[in-house]
Amino acid sequence: MLHVADLTCQILKNVSFALEEGKNLTILGNNGSGKTTLARALCHLIPSESVFWEGKKIGDIAHHLRSQTINYVPTSLEIYDEYLSVTDYLDLNFFESSNPQMREEILGVMEIEHLRDSPCQRLSSGESSLLLIAGAILHRAAYTILDEPTANLDQAKKVKIYRLLKSGSYFQNKIIITHDLNLAYKLGYDILYLEEGEVRFFGSCSDFFDPTQLEGCFGSAVQNIGGNFVVNYDEVR
């Protein structure tokens, strides 16, 4: 179980929640609410004494074991080696020796097999996002945090990633950071909603998208129209 107890760091204030094995989570919140800060604290990229895995402080777990426990996938791919290819990058994500068969399978799943020999620095933002997700699949951590996994993708690729996340075939446990209310609703994961660094809501997807709860978080700026959530920009506060 992943457990956070009174986490306070940078902009976060007394954040507490527990995520049981087999449960997935979507983290929502406005820009600057602390979503990415929380994700980085969960992985100990921001050191904290308030994050626990199976009762043990995440910072006390050896580096190589911690990387197998929880993996943070950022919004953008930053590669400084101009010669590092897509294949090279994917091979770096294996804990043990590379597995060409699995690598090729994931390249196919993500529909980027034609990029296998391309330098990572030359990829588009959308291609980079797909490569990050492919690497996360190969990494096979107990928990994978995906920060805005659909932000740089066209509509067809967004649907592909949604289906991949929904299937449960490629990740053990998932934590998704997103601004996309439709994605959060369709995934159906538990919801943690941050507001100015504090937990405004933590509970089931159905409870969060209850009209009363939704209005409490967004006022009249978000409307549910046939199961699709539409922003009324005239009402954004």
From TrEMBL:
GO molecular function: ATP binding; ATP hydrolysis activity
Pfam families assigned: ABC_tran
Protein's name in the database: ABC transporter related protein
Alphabetical keyword list: ATP-binding, Nucleotide-binding
High-level lineage: Bacteria, Pseudomonadati, Campylobacterota, Epsilonproteobacteria, Campylobacterales
Database matches in SUPFAM superfamilies: P-loop containing nucleoside triphosphate hydrolases (SSF52540)
Location of the ABC transporter domain: 2-221
Domain of life: Bacteria
InterPro entries: AAA+_ATPase, ABC_transporter-like_ATP-bd, ABC_transporter-like_CS, P-loop_NTPase
Natural source organism: Sulfuricurvum kujiense (strain ATCC BAA-921 / DSM 16994 / JCM 11577 / YK-1)
Cross-referenced PROSITE patterns: ABC_TRANSPORTER_1, ABC_TRANSPORTER_2
